[in-house]
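Hi support team,

I've been running sequence recovery on a batch of backbones for a student project. Most finish fine, but this one hangs at about 90% for roughly twenty minutes before it completes. I'm not sure whether the input is malformed or the queue is just slow. I've pasted the structure tokens below so you can try to reproduce it. Let me know if you need the job ID as well.

Thanks,
M.K.
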């Protein structure tokens, strides 16, 4: 599987190249300091691009993700620290996950494999970033509201959603109404099940 990296930390890139040489199922196609440089070379053919969240060229993280995704690769964002709003923006732009750079190689390989298979990578760092994203258009949902939203938006019926949460269908509907109201007050009107599924994707809430 082809992997590429965009990072302007030369030492980290060298370490990453050395790391990945020990992983036979991954092949590092390219490493570049900017998205422009990567897309101009063989890195654009990678299955997965590891993208540093904040680059010294001042490029916007969400824009970087969108450009890479448009070129074909899937994107796993990595960083030394969580910047909640920026992380949330990258997920909304199409990033398949987020990890900090202090993970062991086996965790990185696992994440890359998941991303290449078309799945999202959920990590404690991503959960922290999303939970602390305080932009006004992002409603703050309670754990139970989030549970009901995710189950219902995933395709379950209202009865199945209620059963999984251990509550009545009427209570599940009440939680969904609360979620819709919070999105409405955040300036993002939400009425139908399709709307709810769209909000889940937009806010990077998929499991």
């Amino acid at each position: 599987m082809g992997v590429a990296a965009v990072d302007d930390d030369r030492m980290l890139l060298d370490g990453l190249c050395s790391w990945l040489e020990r992983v036979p199922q991954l092949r590092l196609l390219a490493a570049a300091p900017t998205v422009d440089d990567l897309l101009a070379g063989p890195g654009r053919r990678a299955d997965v691009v590891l993208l540093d969240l904040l680059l010294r060229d001042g490029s916007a993280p969400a824009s970087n993700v969108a450009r890479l995704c448009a070129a074909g690769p899937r994107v796993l964002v990595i960083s030394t620290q969580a910047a909640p709003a920026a992380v949330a923006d990258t997920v909304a732009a199409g990033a398949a996950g987020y990890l900090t750079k202090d993970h062991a190689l086996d965790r990185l390989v696992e994440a890359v494999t998941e991303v290449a298979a078309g799945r999202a990578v959920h990590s404690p760092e991503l959960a922290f970033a999303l939970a602390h994203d305080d932009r006004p258009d992002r409603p703050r949902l309670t754990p139970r509201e989030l549970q009901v939203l995710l189950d219902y938006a995933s395709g379950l019926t209202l009865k199945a959603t209620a059963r999984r949460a251990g509550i009545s269908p009427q209570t599940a509907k009440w939680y969904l109404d609360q979620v819709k109201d919070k999105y409405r007050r955040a300036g993002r009107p939400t009425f139908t099940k399709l709307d709810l599924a769209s909000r889940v994707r937009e806010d990077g809430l998929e499991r």
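--
Follow-up from support: It reproduced on our side and the slowdown came from queue contention, not your input. The chain has two domains: 2-131, 143-202. No action needed from you.
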